[in-house]
Amino acid sequence: MLSEVLLVSAPGKVILHGEHAVVHGKVALAVSLNLRTFLRLQPHSNGKVDLSLPNIGIKRAWDVARLQSLDASFLEQGDVTTPTSEQVEKLKEVAGLPDDCAVTERLAVQAFLYLYLSICRKQRWTKEDLELINKWAFQGERMIHGNPSGVDNAVSTWGGALRYHQGKISSLKRSPALQILLTNTKVPRNTRALVAGVRNRLLKFPEIVAPLLTSIDAISLECERVLGEMGEAPAPEQYVVLEELIDMNQHHLNALGVGHASLDQLCQVTRARGLHSKLTGAGGGGCGITLLKPGLEQPEVEATKQALTSCGFDCLETSIGAPGVSIHSATSLDSRVQQALDGL
Fold first, then answer.
1. How far apart are CA 75 and CA 89, in angstroms?
2. pTM value?
């Protein structure tokens, strides 16, 4: 059993290249985002399991004895298992959430309970267990998304950059860490509708759209090649190539019909300052990324962030290509992270 406080973190994820084209059998590059989710595991002697998810306002507690009485059904196969519909219904009952609870909150609690009941006795946090962590993270994704690609959990587990192609995921070796701005336009989007729109456009204009998808695939492959070179010997001209690829991909995505006026505004604001941006993910609003070249003065970065904030966007400076799931000592944490954890 856990005998001391354990601090674990995992990065987020953005798509660098290959949005929408990946749905049609092309390559996509996903990279870890150094905006990390932190988990603090702390032993208690009150006979309860407490869960606090401050970002979505969840605070729940369950009797350990009651949860352990359910353990057998979750551990019968002794390995990473997919939740059955019966288990999902049981989790809803155990969670004890009110009927008016938001879907995101309900799914988060159910995913936690499923993973807790499945692995609470295993406590394996070594490098050799990364594959196991990835498998369990994928099951958590299934609890929330139903039929995920596996990219999100893989990037959070392994970090760095990943290549995704027709269901196969592989890590890019020696991928460099790149500084970026991540900008949330705060415009909601419907991923399913956007994917369907690209499919319909492909059916309507196959001779136009198919080459666009092939070109996006080529952009992903070229970016993969450049990132590999940068991991060995970074040079200024490589950043110029990355910027050109960003611009071309953004134009292609607009041609596919997944752009948005807010994303155009983001690109215009950063272009006026000599920076290059593209949407990341489904498009139609959502988030965009802006590459920050080495040597860019911090006042220039701050001015860009302020300009984007003035547009009504949220803007964060961070990096991509960050390490995957990690164990931390309390003294190694950033003061802001430590303060947030202490406030739980």
1. 17
2. 0.74
